[in-house]
Model the fold of this input.
Amino acid sequence: MTHELMHFIRPYRWWLPLLVALGIAASFAEGVGIGFLIPMLNTLIGSGPSGNAGPFARFMSELLPDTGEKQKLAIFAVAILVLIGMKAAILASNLALATRLAGQVTRDLRMAACRQLLQVSYSLFSDTEHGRLINILDVQTSRTSEALLWFEEAIIHSCSIAVFVGLLLFLSWQMTLIALVLLAPAFLVVRRITRLAHQRGEALVEAQSVMAGRILELLGNMRTIRIFGQEKAEERRFSGAAEGFYQGFRQWETLNRLVQPLAELLYVPAFLAVFAYAWSTKIGIPTMLVFLLFLYRMQLPLKRLDQARVKLASYSSSVSEVTGLLRTEDTAYVESGSTPIDRLESVINFDKVTFRYEPGSEPALRNVSFEVAKGSVVAIVGKSGSGKSTLVNLLCRFYDPEAGVISVDGKPLPELDLHSWRRCLAFAGQDADLISGSIRENVIFGQPGATDEDVRGAVVMSHAAEFIDRLPEGLETRVGPRGLRLSGGQRQRIALARALIRKPDVLILDEATNAVDNVTEEAIQETVERLAGDATIFVIAHRLSTLRSAHRVLVMADGELVEEGVPEELLRKRSVLSGLAEFDADSYRVPG
Ligand code: ADP
Ligand code: MG
Done:
């Protein structure tokens, strides 16, 4: 746990000695400040240096031997004020330092988690529950930052405990020994109660969520409760939860309130013993008083240190979640090759490609081989689940095949620089996943730095201009995941413009227009096909019109490439036609 935290702090490790130094300085200033009470009280009650006191007490007693009483008092009072002021200032800067450190580490953690998500293989990303990822990126990193704050507090309090124990020893090691022996059991008892209170606190949180559940149920099912005449039963259940909460609260509160008085009570024997010792050895009232003040003053850091340890333990699961994400073993990591690629020169080849999403599951692609010449339009058809999108996923290298090779101009995909290969591609799919921002920002996302003319060209080509021009804010209309009242078809056309503005070498349309009305879809189809020749186009669609104008058709069934050929030839075979018709009826989406 501490080890994991240290790992996060590593880039800022030089802060730690500073934290310790300031912690020691603050407590030392406070201790010496309190120590000035010794000569002050000596002066007031007219006693001399303490008999068999430790070096600190003697040093303090013997300050300014030849100064007048009034001046002495004034000097000591000022010294106390200055030292206590210094302590406050040092402590404040130390806490500021600690907060800043925790803040920076949290920021780094979030960035590291984000970078990790952008880097890991696509399969790891899609296999992890998104709720969990959101929780890690948001809640757990914050809790890790709190854990860090507690860790730093633990350091600061340890410093002040060390300083106080040191000063106690220098006041009188004998009294220190007596006090420690008597206080140890008291400390253990208090600690036990604090932990019990903490456990009760956790039980209380539990009772709170039971209560919240009941409230939700009550509000959500009001109609059902009344229709079925369940008011009384509901009231009973509610009162059960309310009672549970009350009991939990009472126990927690009682324990909490018990801690302080009990601690003070348990301190009394130690105080009395110190008093008796001081009396019998003539160590002097001033020294004894300062000693007791130190003892009393030590309570706070001791309590906070213990609290910090409990907190750290309770945050350890958050820290592990975050480190877990950062160190996830990514078995499907897709490593970029080194050969850059500017454009597709001649051919894309799938050679006996087999792929499964999970080891041991049915292959999503089985022994698929085909070749596509640059500049052609390839239609991929087949029923839902037959592996069409999987082909595309592999071509974009979201995954690597389990067997077989996909090559571009004769070079296997893994040899190519991944970024430059993806720069050759553009993709539009059926879920038009728009980013939050204006329509213009969404289109430019495809080609950062594109001009207004390019944007205009792309939206005209995707037939999005038709509806954009009718929007009051035109291209500046805001859209996004929770965006506006755009229909599915309109969103798809924006997504298509985003793909087209890249002027891609390889354009992939995976049911990219299935929510667009028939007439517009055919118009889009025609525009897009005019790009062929320069661009190589993969179209996954179910309409016969798509099939007719393609240069080549691949027919997929259960992960296998079952037929392949030119459209006229395939259209003559009834099998493909009937499959397509059935598919069409099944999954055609009503335009949003
Ligand atoms: P199509 O695009 O032709 O509808 P897909 O290529 O999406 O079909 O799916 C092919 C097979 O792979 C289906 O059985 C589907 O359930 C499975 N599959 C698709 N995506 C995943 C995934 N991310 N994880 C596991 N299985 C998947
Ligand atoms: Mg699909």
